[in-house]
Amino acid sequence: MKPASRLQGRHHPQIWNSAPQLADIPIISTQTLIPAGARAVILAPHPGDEVGACGGLLQLLSNLDQPMLLISVTDGSHGHPSSPLWSDERLRTHRPHPQESVDALHRLGVPTHGLQWVRGGFPEKTLVEHEAQVAAFIGQYLRPGDVVFSTWRKDGDADHETVGRAGALAAENIGAVFNELPVWAWHWPVREQNKIPWHRARKLRLDVWTTARKRHAMHAYASQLNGEPASGISPLVPRVILDRMGMPYEIVFI
Fold it and tell me: Keyword 4Fe-4S on this protein (predicted)?
């Protein structure tokens, strides 16, 4: 996810709860997004992005026994610079064995024992410097007919956008379908809503239990939700993100 200090416009009205275009987005079903027999591939730039971007979709796919591949591009190992609580040693202990992500998937009801899960270990916050390598890495695991879901190429976060571009290139090269998921774009000021490609947007409906599990899963990321007031360090994931988890839908750009 993204440090709160980098979330511009977070004190302004947000697109996700204010844009009138939201009511007009066409509904799409899971089966339409991912045809029978196709594999869904989820690209997560950082730990927590798989929940924040599409925690509902992950649940729906799991309920349908749809084949899935989760690609975690980074481990989140640079999420807490200068933090006395999350030292480099503690991060090395937790992040190479992503306990928070494992816990989050369990909270979603997604069994990890049968889930294809690949971890890239790329350095966080500098993915743009390794974009070609990220694209090549992703391409190793794609196959024709896959349906890829990545963070949006214009999401407003450098790592999210890099993974989006890399995923789009890899999908094009292999003959896979490519979809994008806005994450931080929903927290831009409303005046920026004209930058959203509403014509590409589709709405995936979530029932009350799916929504509740998604929110519960996001709370697994304690290292991102709990700041350190004594050190002047704010939570990496601000409250506004958890508020958005209560929306009974997810938006996909197709």
Answer: no
Q: How much is the pTM? A: 0.87
DSSP per-residue string spanning 148-169: EEEE-TTSS-HHHHHHHHHHHH
Domain count, the chain: 1
Two structure tokens written together for 113:
């024992």
- Of 3-12, 20-29, 61-70, 148-157, the poorest mean pLDDT is in 3-12
Answer with the residue of higher pLDDT: 93 or 243: 243
Q: Which pairing describes strands 40-44 and 68-74: parallel, antiparallel, or unpaired?
A: parallel
Q: What is the pLDDT of residues 174-215, one digit of tens each?
A: 999 999 999 999 999 988 999 999 999 999 999 999 999 999
The answer to whether the CB of 213 falls within 8 A of the CB of 108 is yes
Residue 188, domain extent? 4-253
φ, ψ of residue 32 to 5 degrees: the values are -75, -40
Q: How far apart, in whole angstroms, are the C-alpha atoms of residue 127 and residue 118?
A: 17
- Joined together, the tokens standing for residue 108 give 């979603």
CATH number at residue 26: 3.40.50.10320
Of 158, 70, 157, nearest in space to 118 by CA: 70
pLDDT band at 235; cut points 50, 70, 90: low
